[in-house]
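Example 392.
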Amino acid sequence: MNWMDTELELMADASLNRSLRASRSVSGYPGYTVRGEQVLLNMSSNDYLGLSQHPAILEVMREALLTEGAGSGASRLTTGNGLAYVRLEEALADWQNCEAALVFANGYMANSGVISTLVGRGDVVFSDQLNHASMVDGIVFSRAEHARYRHNDLEHLRKLLNNNRDKRRKLIVTDAIFSMDGDRAHLQELISLKHEYGAMLMVDEAHSGGLYGGRGEGLCHELGLQNDVDIHMGTFSKSFGVYGAYICGSRTLIRWLVNKARPLIYSTALPPSIIAGIAKALVLVKEENWRRERIHLATRLFRSLLCNSGFKIGAGDSPIVPLIVGDNETALRFSSALEEEGIAAVAIRPPTVPEGTARIRFSLSAVHTDKELTHAAVRTHNIGLQLGVLCP
Ligand SMILES: *Cc1c(COP(=O)(O)O)cnc(C)c1O
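Predicted structure in complex with pyridoxal-5'-phosphate:
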């Protein structure tokens, strides 16, 4: 097993090693995290709406735990399919204005399981270069051809579609909001291409669910495009503050997945307490519009503060604010310096992002105050100067 040490050494030399650090949350303060003895403003969580500690969610989870037990005991096709699952899926289909919905254990399993169930050998998947790893893995599992197009480059996609006209099934997959860049996919144009070339279209709303649309349905709804997307995917682990994921679409799609999707068939159903928590979070996501308004205000403030400081940040209007510093070591030093100032904002490095685009990925939450964000922006500015990321 010596090869592992050798490889790990090489990764460390390139500032690419990763390690698991313990942190814990602060009861009642979802915007903070504790590392060691230090309380940090948490700017690296995906708890965009600040729901992870909502008392109403905790209450229904506690109740489900006490009445129904810790685990579901079996997969959904055997005896793990509690009534709460059925009710939740009805509510999800209604919310997404789709015929049917299906809950998966998490986003990774939903993406990898669904893509590999929709296509196989002889098919082709067109995937944005910056799509989430769970989609990439789905393509690998499927054994379909992987046609990777340059980020948001529709001409490149068109060329690939042209080159693959003879393939049996065609699937275009994209993040709605890109997870490490915070910018949007060009959904309208993707829909046009999908129609033109007879492809299916799958959109991952992991970072747009809860944030866009009148009731938090996501970016497709915000743009009025929901009916042109064949497979809607979203998670309950980010804006919903809980855990799990969903697929919404036609009744036929859901029937197909129930019969074919291996992560659904061969894995234990989520615990009843999680399903209860998701159901309550869905109600809050739909109704508590002020959280959406607040996160968008917070985003505008923080983005403009960083821009005015002279930083080049990623385009877009999402609460994912990437500050690209380039090399891995600078990104790590930037992140450590922020931590010393009481701010948790992690460095994201390859292979999560392309080579040479290491970054600090700030992600904001509705529970962050203007004061906290201003403080964070000032500290970021100072560190940027110290590390030479910003010119004085
Ligand atoms: C987080 C994320 C996932 C995975 O969701 P989990 O529920 O955390 O497994 C999938 N797609 C995107 C775009 C994500 O950011």
